[in-house]
Amino acid sequence: MLHRDKVVSQVIDNHAHNLLLPSEYDNHPFASITTEASGDALEDTFFSLPHIRASNQLKELYDYHGPDEEWDCLKERRRWLDFAPVALIRKCLEGTYSILIDDGLGDPHTMHPYNYHDQFTVAPSKRILRIETVAERLMETIVRRVAEEVLVSARFIEDTFLLFTERFERAIHQAIDDTEVAGFKSVICYRSGLDIEADYERCFRTIGPPFERYIVRCVTEKRYRLDIKHVNDYLVLKTLEILTSRAGKGFSKPLQLHTGLGDRDIDLLRSNPAYLQAVIERYPQVPFVMLHSAYPYTRSAGYLASMFKNAFLDIGEVFPMLSRDGEVQVLRQALELVPYNKLLWSTDGHYFPETYWLANKQFREVLEEVLVEYTRENDMSESRAIDLATALMFNSSNDLYNLGYPPRRGEKAAPRALPLVGQRAPRSREATYIIRLWEHFMKLHPETRFVFVQWLDYMGQMRSRIYPAIEFNNMVNAGTRISIAQGNTGTLQNDTVNVAVNTTGQIYVEPDLGSLRPAWKAPMPAATVMSRWCDVNGGSIKECARCYLQSCLQELHLDHSTHILVGFEIECVFLKRNPENIADPYLPLTTTHAWGTMSAEQWTNLLPIVLEISEALAAIGINLQAMHSESHPAYEFILPPLPPIEAVDTLYQTRQVIATIAESHGLRVTLHPHPTPSSGSGAHTHISLNSTELDTVVLDKKELQFWAGVLAHLQAICAFALPEKESYDRIAEDRWSGGVWVAWGTQNREVPLRKAGDRRWEVRCLDGFANMYLVLGAIVAAGLLGLKKEMEMVVKDCPYNTARLDEAQRTEYGITNMLPRSIDEAMKALDDDSSLKEALAEDMAKNFLIMKKAEQEMLDKMSDEARRIWLIERY
Description:
This protein is of the alpha/beta class and 875 residues long. The chain folds into 4 domains: 1-124 and 340-409, no CATH class; 127-314, TIM Barrel (Alpha-Beta Barrel); 435-541, Ubiquitin-like (UB roll) (Roll); 551-873, Creatine Kinase, Chain A, domain 2 (2-Layer Sandwich), CATH 3.30.590.10. The strands form 3 sheets. Strands 15, 16, 17, 18, 19, 20, 21, 22 and 23 form a 9-stranded mixed sheet that branches. An 8-stranded parallel sheet has the order 1-2-3-4-5-6-7-8. InterPro entries: Amidohydro-rel (IPR006680), Gln_synth/guanido_kin_cat_dom (IPR014746), Gln_synth_cat_dom (IPR008146), Metal_Hydrolase (IPR032466).
């Protein structure tokens, strides 16, 4: 039976609008998310089926379990979520590949710029240029300082018309050439109706008096809104003339037209797209996109879309503005006559992120309902239904707007090197970098003088190169990368060479501009940016752990309709320097310290530093969820759940801030898992499997298969996750450190894999020595093996401390294997795990083991205390 998990999981949203700045939320009624009504009429929306349905669905989004019909309680819950607006937006835009944004709605000072939304989608947003907004702003620029006295001059009116027309034509030509502009839009439906004069010459001959009235009003009333019919018709026809002249042999960039559904300003009768027939026929090289399902004139729009090659119907806005039955009828009416390759999907998302979420959720539900019936009644095959859904949700917009994204083939889509939903945007086809990310960062931080380009080596050490901001700007605009020796991928922490070092060849470092952050209190204003390794053409290379993790995540998403979020805990120890004692130069900052305590000593010595760290992180856009003391002498900082690449980038940038602030107080902060004889510190990592396409039963099954794969390969994963001899000093029984057995349990902290909540699992056999790109790559690779083999979870949910179970009891729970007891055992487990090694990028495990063996040989030559100090100073 056809199910949504067989349908393409990501959508191109071909028409939406900017989100509000959080500071503007209270200035717009939240109830408007399901209605075009305003003013007094908005009071009645609470009794409408669309509102009631949306309220019930928002409880799912907000994880709200209060009374069914308490709208005020729901709004209060949302206010709490406003404290983390980015997380809410990311959740609401999940499943969105790219958005075409009409950024002409509302005051731009109250909304995020269109490219702000890039961080939540796979591919960058594109603009839809609203021609009325262009014209109104041009006219305001031309006449805003003009005195009324000049209106008596006929020459002034004529010159103003010519100047306005020249600038408007130039703006349209520039937009056609601008790769950031995917198409154009007119709201003439709102202003004067769709009964547009189809003959440009006739319109031009009669434009004089109406345009003069418009100029006079602009000068005398300073009111620039275009709502004079002949002027509106002229602008639409002028745009169509230019588009046609630039079309060549094919279609021009599309023109979207508001049709049907709108607020009370609209003339409902003149919003019927049937009025457009003559214009559509007269301009065959311009694609006309009739927006908003043309409701209630869906069938009229459908007729045009079926009769004219250049007419297309957008299925949008009715989700979530209609009841479920109404939405079903609109989709059915659209499919009555229209070839499905001429149907396009949009959310018309605007102002509040929930408008995106509700539209996508309801559309998927309705699409599934309609297509299931068509396949059940043998109106079409299942494969045809999948092709229909894929065209509507992705391919048709991709083709019409010439976006150039890899086409989708529903369940047969092949894995591609593209990021998951919610992760930062990929490189565009035109350039190495998304330059506007750099430009936006510099607008926010114009004082930036230097950029620290950073990347992580296999040993978990941060490497960097510093660029003056002007040189970094030149590099970004030129699309060049940083060339480094191939051998740099294989050196140890002190640049010791080993057989993994290839002394010939080059690799290239490519900064991910989406990871730009201010560098906290650098000697001069600076920024940090994380990077990947690639070849000369920008292709991923097998040595890059960051790229490998990305490819695993893409496979997880494309093959299993699943994506993950990752939340890191940073456990660290603040040490004061003790230079008088050369043998033991580091001592714990606090001694009256235990889990969750706040002693007077902590209050005085540690709390000011911890709070300073939190404030510093917030200042660069990293918001901690919580902080608390751990078992002596550790302290814990909890990061929010993020898409994996972003989560790892944020982890290392957070660690840098913590270390920098500690150093400013004359302290050393370390991630060493056992820097003192007392309990050690780990790097517990929370991972959740999520899906916007799978139902609960299917996702539950895939979740257990994923974690069954992880447990099956956990001994080998330990080579990456616990990569030093000291790592195993922490792994012991009865220490709340995860125990020594390969096991899992719900809320059980004496197993290495704790099920911490619905969909959320905590990996506990991990510490701060690890390269987290490598660790997550290995975990996801193991999980994918579990999914491919459909592994059963033979290890049972263990509710007991495994140290207190005898062999028979452990066997009853499927607990038969121990974690490695040393780094040598872990390395052997990885070397022996042929299936995991094969799943990892070519030679990744081999080179890691070579480097790790060389590192251990180097460290083993040191005394225990010298080794401890050496590691504390580097981690």
